Amino acid sequence: MLLHVEAVFYFFRHWESGESTIEKRGDDLKRDIKQILHSVMLENKLSKEEIIFLLSDGFSDKRELLTAADRVRKQFMGNAVHLRGIIEFSNYCERNCRYCGLRAANRQLKRYRIEEDEIISTASESVALGYRTVVLQSGEDSFYEADKIAFIVKRLKALPGLAVTLSCGERSAEEYRLWRKAGADRYLLKHETADPALYKQLHPDMTFDNRRRCLYRLREADFQVGSGCMVGLPGQTLEALADDLLLLKELDVEMAGIGPFIPHPRTPLGSAPAGTVEMTLKMLALARLLLPQAHLPATTALGTIDPSAHRKALQAGGNVVMPVITPQRYRNLYEIYPHSTTCQDDNPDYGRRCMGKVIASLGRTVAEGPGHSPKPPFGRMRVVRVKMEG
Ligand code: SAH
Ligand code: SF4
After folding, report:
1. Please, is 24 exposed, middle or buried when counting C-beta atoms within 10 Å of its C-beta (0-12, 13-18, 19+)?
2. Is any atom of ligand 2 closer than 6 Å to the C-beta of 40?
3. Atom number, ligand 2, closest to the C-alpha of residue 169
4. Which residues pair with 36 in a beta bridge?
5. Partners of 260 in beta bridges
6. First to last CA, the chain
7. E strand or H helix at 341
8. What are the sequence ranges of the domains in the chain?
9. Which residues of the chain, if any, have pLDDT below 70?
10. What pTM was estimated for this model as a whole?
11. Which fold has domain 79-369?
12. Is 66 within 8 Å of 302 (Cβ atoms)?
């Protein structure tokens, strides 16, 4: 592996020095890349330098990377695509993330909370449409004391065969434990960026350390943990993106949501450029190679910047889609970023059928079960190894 890294640096050195080595080294480099991809497919490991190289413009054979990820997805996760229906139950938020339209400082936004009975009836309709997971997502809204959420989770878990994912932001270890005890199966808390300085700039009232701490609390509470990052944030370097992937690997996440940053006009980052489809697809493909058994959604954000990209993501390692099933009258109010039109319509049945068509057109199927993580629980491998060595 070291040899490959050296070859990559050889390429950079000569490239930067202005020698026309690209042509001379073309075949060699191609072979090195092939070896790097071959080896990551076997070992699911990449060094930070290798990740940075694969994300850089110097690496032009993007297709090879995406194809490798598609093969690994097929081998480890099969052809089924999991549907997770998102219910955005409150757009109140006490935080001020500089990229997000729900930030507290956006006073032009009309706020809502969906009544408990309506949450349950929405979930119940989604079960009838074939959904086996609902994701309950909200801004950081302390109106929902831990007991309130626990109660909703219990009611949702009474619906037949329904897995429940929560995505309600940072909370204490006790609260996470209570929600897990109430029956919530999974928790989605994206780390957003693994660059602590950039994290601080983007989240004036939060810290990366606390984000990370919350992710470990979720691990301790025995959730299937989803995390992830945005791609193309203003000031984000390739090194930071490599750290994002390495953090997801360290956390050994069951799910990783990797989507482009999309500027929202009513935020301080409203005029910044959006993340690109190309970089997001590369990040997704690398996540698949590093975490072969993680669930990786083709994010709605990707569909927002390019409707065909959603499809491309399913061919670059993705195996999950997350249609919004929030009742129509709230949808325009949950505007974390300007909305995607991918498979969105007033009729909840439409989204389901539309996604089904996209999935079938790729020769894939819609998963029938709840789509729990197939990988060993966090830490299990390590414990086994320690025992064997002892
Ligand atoms: N409040 C919760 C969950 C809701 S926000 C939380 O923050 O965890 C869900 C996700 O939307 C965030 O994790 C973030 O990654 C994403 N998001 C917010 N604003 C965005 C933007 N402008 N572009 C892309 N993704 C964004
Ligand atoms: Fe609130 Fe989440 Fe948006 Fe941050 S990203 S402002 S916590 S909804």
Report:
1. exposed
2. no
3. 7
4. none
5. 231
6. 28
7. none
8. 2-76, 79-369
9. 1-31, 340-342, 344-346, 348, 379-390
10. 0.90
11. TIM Barrel (3.20.20)
12. no
